[in-house]
Amino acid sequence: MIHVEDGPLGWLVVGGCMSGTIKVADADGIVISVVAGDLKAANAYELYVYSCPGSITIAGTVTYADLAELSGALRCGTLAGILTVTDCPLSGSITIDHDLDGLVWAEQGLSGHLAVGGDVYGGLFVGSASPRDLTGTVEVEGSLRAFLWRITGNLGDPNDPNNTTKGQIKVHGGFVPPYQTGRLEIWGNVVGAGACFVVDYDGFDPNDLWDPNSAVIIGDPNDPNHPQVAYTQNTPELKLYKITECRGDCDNNGTVDLDDVNPFTAALIGESQYAQLFPGLVGSRTYHTDTNCDATLSTADVNPFVALVTSGCCDPNCPGCEDQDGGGGLPDPQELAKQLADNIWPELYDDLVAIVAENIDLQPDDESRAYWEAVYAALTE
Predict the structure, then answer these.
(1) Is the pTM of this model over 0.85?
(2) Is the pLDDT of residue 49 over 90?
């Protein structure tokens, strides 16, 4: 164990493997061949590491960092300069507690996790001379304000297409560069069950915008057979999402209709089921399905959800433009049962019936209870 905490340190150089703990104050530079233990510093203006299966924590600012391999964890307060991982895919984790002002460059691909606690003003480059994929996750707690992010390969893993967690960029805030247009370039494609780009990930906020001058651009500028196409708004079919304001819009396509019955049912079953079917919308699950606005998702949301679907109402408020008074404004119970049965996926049918049965006991009066008993009877006959 090495502690140098009383004052600034010039250069710290370790030629071999560091398996214990090094804790220093400010350092002009740190050079270590292998970090297998814990390296902690207040600030590190330059950081050079060949391999890091351990952990590096810089409480303050990193101005420049060069790692050949990162399979462990790197954490810093602010990244003001450039961080490159050059020789191997970035399979570990990088956590930046505040804003990302500099550049993260994963030259051989990003299969790990990049988390930013604030806004992103700097760049993210995945790949260099050869196409490389982003198969890991990037999560931004603030807004994406960068001019350019570039993935030279795919967003997602073409070799593991059924994986529901690979290739995700989740932005909790907006996609709003302050001075110019923003670009997320994907030179390959969005591939795999889990791959997605999401703006306003944690549920609709009117202040979290996707600026229409900012685009996700899919296509290879060097391949005429895969020309670049720009997408400037919510495009659910490609899993490029801007979370919509509509309560009940559980598939996030901007309308509330019978297509939302399956995701609503899956959401009531539980987060894990919903995550398997709609991985890019996990963060907005409660917002879209909490149709009575009590901040929880439960069977009590069934009545207002059905009212929203029946009216085709899109509203962030509760109550909104739909009729939510018991059975009032709802279709005939046999007709509702038919609509539900015709649109539910077979694997979710029994779950839907169970939800309807549970909903009967929640009704406030005999009329409403009789309505949902009739729906249940029609579904089970």
Answers:
(1) yes
(2) no
